[in-house]
Amino acid sequence: MQTNNISDSIVRKAFYESTEKTHVIACWVGLLLNLVWAISDYFVQPNYFVSFFGFRLGVSVASIAILLFRNQLKVSIYLCMFILVSGISIQNAYMWSVMDLAHFEEHTFAYMVLFIGTGMLVLWKGWLSWILVTITVVSNVVFYSLNSSLTVREFVINGGLMTLTVLLFSLFLIRSRYKLTYNEIKSRLDLEFSKQQLELQNVEIEQQNKSLEYKNKEITDSISYARNIQMASIPREDRFHAAFDQSFVYYMPKDIVSGDFYWIYETENVVYYATGDCTGHGVPGGFMTMLGLSFLEEIIAGKKIEDPAEVLNLLRAKIINALNQNGGAGESKDGMDITICRIDKINNILTYASANNSVYIVRKNSENPVIEKFPADRQPCGFYHNNAPFNTQTIQLQKGDSVYTLTDGFADQFGGPKGKKFRVKQLEQIILENCHKSFIEQREILASELKKWQGNLEQVDDVLIIGVSV
Length: 470
Hints:
Number of strands: 13
GO molecular function: phosphatase activity
Transmembrane segments: 22-43, 49-69, 76-96, 108-124, 131-149, 155-174
Domain PPM-type phosphatase: 272-468
CATH superfamily of the largest domain: PPM-type phosphatase domain
Protein name: Protein serine/threonine phosphatase
Number of helices: 15
Oligomer: single chain
Keywords: Coiled coil, Hydrolase, Membrane, Transmembrane, Transmembrane helix
């Protein structure tokens, strides 16, 4: 079979041609916005307007000159974009350094917008990204040392750490989009090359088309994965359906990326599953969920740890080690509230350990079903000022019992006629009143109740409720 011989130089040329226009437009828009935002400087920081505008003008003029004469200077459009982004980053570092705390926090949004926009629009090679990180960090350190009246702690917790996190996440996005776009263009060129051989070898072209269709599907799946990287790591709900007679997973992230997550693993009629709520939601919470999923896979599926309390103890140790937590001032206090359940399906025995989130069991072995609440250890799975070993609880289940694990997002949702929280008691009552209905109906009822309660208010947190029946 004849193989494609599209060289990397041809692919790079096509890549440049297909992305140049977008980057030119992005450069001009960035230049325009950088100057327009000087209006905001005038009203927010009038005392520094002249120096701010001078910085903006200098960055813009230098970037415009390089952009207009890039062909004569033999400078790529990606380097033009890099110079503009780096200049604005240095400019923002200077602005930060002369601001008081209130204005510092306000300007954090503008700094993050720069990096978010860069992640969404820019396609450049990885080495430029790391130079940008270096320039950003060094310029902030230098200007902070020269000008800032803020303490290091104030600088870090009021925007510095978050901005760095957004920068790193944006650089990951640039890298993923670069590879996906490059592969997509290469596949398109491969397809064109294959079509040129159609009259010579019909059979060969048919095989190549099948190969290219597979490649295109891989690229499409990869693009979806890049946008939904977290969802690709969380197990599908049908794994619960396969493990239990009845089950449901009601999962409603607040943002595109969720701080809540779940995980399941089954071996020899024993099912392990986790219901987790990481610190925060959105991008910060999403980073923590990836740690949680990876560590659970290693501890339970890899090391075959069976005791839920030991699982939580090991998980906590790994989180503390990964985040370098030692109780120092200003360091990350990230962690998670998480429930680990182990259900022996042969003997109907539930063992669980939980950090902060209670476990609920509905007993239906009488005319009047009851809901029982089983407590959790009152400490997070992460660094805590008074860490203690987690405890495992053992419960004998009866046929028909339903086990519910959940995070606090549903109960904490504001709404109703007075704009108050939904509350755990109200949630318990809904679960109990509908316990005889199918689990599909229960999930629909929970979704309907939350939507009705929330009304036009914003969702305050990620929502996760898991129900299983034995």
